Amino acid sequence: MLAIQKKLSKSFYALLSLPAxxxxxxxxxxxxTLSWILGTKYxxxxxxxxxxxxxxxxxxxxxxxxxxxxSDRSWFMGGRRKPYIVIGGILGASMxxxxxxxxxxxNSTGLSIFVVAIIVSxxxxxxxxxxxxxxxxxxxxxxxxxxxxxRGFSWMQVVSGTxxxxxxxxxxxxxxxxxxxxxxxxxxxxxxxxxxxxxxxRILQTAPTAAVTDKKTNSSFLEGLAxxxxxxxxxxxxxxxxxxxxxxxxxxxQYQLNVMYGCLILTVMLGIHIIWKGKQKPSANNEFQKIxxxxxxxxxxxxxxxxxxxxxxxxxxxxxxxxxxxWANGFSNFFTSTGQTAESTAGNxxxxxxxxxxxxxxLLPVLVLEPLSQKxxxxxxxxxxxxxxxxxxxxxxxxxxxxxxFYTGMIICGIGxxxxxxxxxxxxxxxxxxxxxxxxxxxxxxxxxxxxxxxxGLSELVSNAGDYSLLFLLIAISLLVxxxxxxxxxxxxxxx
Length: 496
Known about the structure:
CATH topology: Growth Hormone, Chain: A
CATH superfamily: MFS general substrate transporter like domains
Largest sheet: none
Distance between the termini: 23 Å
Structural class: mainly alpha
CATH class: Mainly Alpha
Helix content: over 70%
Radius of gyration: 21 Å
Number of domains: 1
Strand content: under 5%
């Protein structure tokens, strides 16, 4: 074990953050380039693009619980998480390199661009899902619960967020194709090199550190399904989408919105039951379920932003903007002399907006969120961050049709983003058994991938309305519901 690991020094926290940073950089590249490249180079419609994005949630549903359970029970290459980080990194780099070559793959295989895009996106997301759980679980494995673990996840977001900023900077300054090639190299190096310098413990702390605990600790499919009870509404809609889009070829499209409304109502009803049950009989399992519920509504909004913001910019900002006056184009032209089109301008605005989102997301965790969490409590600070994010999306709905206000909204949303990808993991890991950390991370991931499967319904709602500003109203409502749910999540006792 390195001396920096024994001391839990800042340099060790930075090293420990690199595998998660590789995944974050891969995800940032996907967010910056996937909708853009499918909508411009390959001319796919918004609803086709949302279907391609479904590959991520589908692979997450399959891969993350399996990888989580396997990594909890395996030991290879001197660790339980390391092999999956390396495998995911290699696969992710390969799929990134495939994105600009979808047409070549299509011509070589005889498959349509749409099918190839789904396959490549599925494999890219599979790599992210294979790596993300172990990359986060290893932080929990090597840090004690409390302040040290909060610091570990805060540093994860600082390092990952900083590289995320670099990803969007490269996108704006040098173009998305350049970003893809840089990302492939970064993902490969940051996934493989750090694991040789991190020592994983073979024996983990067995008891959860939450204020209330459960006696049962054995993992099983039925137990996992029971834990996901507050997400059953999202599960039903996910099954509907899979059957309708992939088996029936869209023959149930006319029912999609009504099914979505019904599933959301079901989710709210189940959430109320979980909250009421927690009042009657508190338990660590109930706390975990309330976190799943709250995080699911956060991610429903966030994923919708990632998937549909490009089309919002194209329809709501570009018509009132002189391309030559766009700040994002001026930023890009400073580094290159490439002429800008409407499509590239929309891509530049999107990348600069997400750059600002990630800049705030990288700056706040260590400088602001961690010290405030120690004084006021992690859940309390998290609520404030989600409230800021809700306000940011509301601003985008009311006034986000200019480039300046779009960036302003992204900056405000960055406050919530900084917490969503840092503090929430510290909160969640204190409710679960350390020996089941991989499984718990896999279950927690369902609060991300299941809401993401609802984006086709939201995209249809926005498209039918003919008003793309509706996107941010729906996102703001989703974040507001999440905020309300977080008020029923209890603080744990602070540990030094």
